Amino acid sequence: MDSRVDIVQRNLERCLNDLRAGVAALADDEPLPGGSRLTAAAARDLFTDQVRSRALDVAARELKTSGRSFYTISSAGHEQNAVVGALLRTTDPCFLHYRAGGFMMARSRLAGGGGGNVDPVLDTLLSLVASADDPISQGRHKVWGSRPLWVPPQTSTIASHLPKAVGTAFCLARMRRLGIPRPIPDDSIVCATFGDASANHATALSGINAARYAHRRGNAMPILFVCEDNGIGISVDTPRSWIADSFSRMSNLHYVHADGELDEIYDAVAAAIERCRTARAPVFLHLPTVRLWGHAGSDVETTYRTLADVCADEARDPLVRNARRLVATGAATPDRLRAIVASTRDAVRATAERAAITPKLTTREQVMAPLAPYREARVRVEACARLDDAQRAEHFGLDLPERATAPPRRTMAAHINAALRDEMLRRPEVVVFGEDVGRKGGVYHVTAGLQRTFGSGRVFDTLLDETTILGVAQGAGLLGLLPVPEIQYLAYLHNALDQLRGEACSLSFFSSGQFTNPMVVRVAGLAYQKGFGGHFHNDNAVGALRDIPGLALAVPARGDDAARLLRGALAMARTDGRVVVFLEPIALYHEKDLHAAGDGGWLSDYAPPGSALLPGEVGIHDTRPGEADVLVVTYGNGVRMALRVARLLADEHDLGVRVLDLRWLSPLPHEAIYAHAGECGRVLMADEARATGGGVADAIVADLVERGFHGPLATVRSADSYVPLGPAADTVLLSEDDIHDAALALAKA
Q1: What is the pLDDT of residue 671?
Q2: Catalytic residue from among 537, 595, 653, 670
Q3: How many angstroms separate the CA atoms of 491 and 220, rounded?
């Protein structure tokens, strides 16, 4: 075991052996002297929680040394966070820093401890050894989390969980306003803990700013930010007073400093929680701590800190300080504290031996089971439910969009708007939000009129920050809402991609499906806009989205498909807790024509409730049904371009072209592609995304080859370039000429 661990252990033992009781013992319900509300019994309970956390840290290192556990990152020195865990309610959602051992021990005790539904010692050790019996992640990661304790697991080291904590606090109040049942009491608050170094991260600052902004605008924002300040981030010192200087004078953020003796910390934390709960406003709790034993198990502190500095921190061990305080006030005797330490260490060691021999995940199927659940039959029932036409007409404020007097043939933007209206009518839990989606109705008017119809409680504008938008979506999904956030442009999503990659899509995986944050993220994107943009408004790459495990990605090409795909996406989110991105081609929003100006060939009838499109269901368009010479596989803008090319090839070269609209880019419909490839014999993949890793061409070609397809194969793709402004864009984007020439060459192969 690390020698510094031994030294800290011996320091505590020496302290306990040197202590002598010198005052009268306090009764269990008697508060510590000085007017504190901390009683003797509660103080001993906190000390026990802290000793238990410390013993678990020691066990983690022992297991790692013997090769029975893995990466360790301890809570040693942060045990005063047990006070926060003890004073919050178990119905207050908590998003925790990785040094939350004391916190979890105290919170578990409130729920019954080892004699109740939660055994914090066993649960932590099972997580440490990556056991399949771990009740939260089933061995997928070492995380603090518990369904009974309302602690969704976090794996972040950079406070990227703060935006979703803020979103949870915001949506709790929003659900009350909407009269939607809440899974937790109305006076609950949300807690998010993080370190002093992480407080500098853009994501953390985004979350704190969003809470202050929402409060300033009059929204209830019951969130407790807990900064556990140990003064160092791995090897980089935090400047003295940096946290206090940075956050104590912020407007719309109440700052509380919790330092000193255990009872003083207890009173300060209690006041912070009470303020947050009663005022329904953000509170910043500054909790000074000390980091013992380096950043993680593999970290050798003396490579970047002097031995004198390390020893000085060891002298600030909170367990030693608390032991002295309990004895000095009469809350405990030295013998009682020694007994707590000895019995706790023995119990943890014994439990560690039991945990080490529990089963592990052994198959790919076991590991991936909660990653992307999909119960197709249930989703289809959910997606295809009917709605009462009289009720729909009342909400549409005009004749139904599928009826002839409407008129029925509409653009994609109109179809998406109508589908959103229908789904908001069907599902009172649906909320639509983002930049400019409310009063303006979106920059492309896709959400026009929704706020007027459904109210500002369900359709609302956010601040200009994609990280916050996706944070609100995660919080909404956690509480039972069905969020439909809008990201104004695909290029803007990259500013906040980790909120999908590292947070939203990992939640079900790391909680074994016990926590989910369903959502359908509407993203306006892809290229071919005329007269607007450059690459910030014409982003033609989807690789970053397809790279996210568990994320489903739908891309409509036609208006009628868009409505049915949106229903399918919402049903997947509601039924299986999925995160779905609904990527809408901006250039096709208001497109009316297909082959010639005024032909109305890209308008379509509205598909009313009762029909939906799910993964694997592709669109097929034949110029000569049953006689296709070439299969063109494409999506989005590529569908319209391929259909224009197909007519030209039929007229000029008597070629039959079948256009396969993928509709879903994740998961890709490989079975359907292979089946149609076999019928046509030749396959052209027309991918409007960038050639290298930007789209889906590589994956489709590889799958066809691996399945044994032996016919001619070709791809046409956009160049590996940002999209420039104006006509220059045509030089780097996939064109109809590219598709035409490649299809003709294939047909002659």
Answers
A1: 98
A2: 537
A3: 31
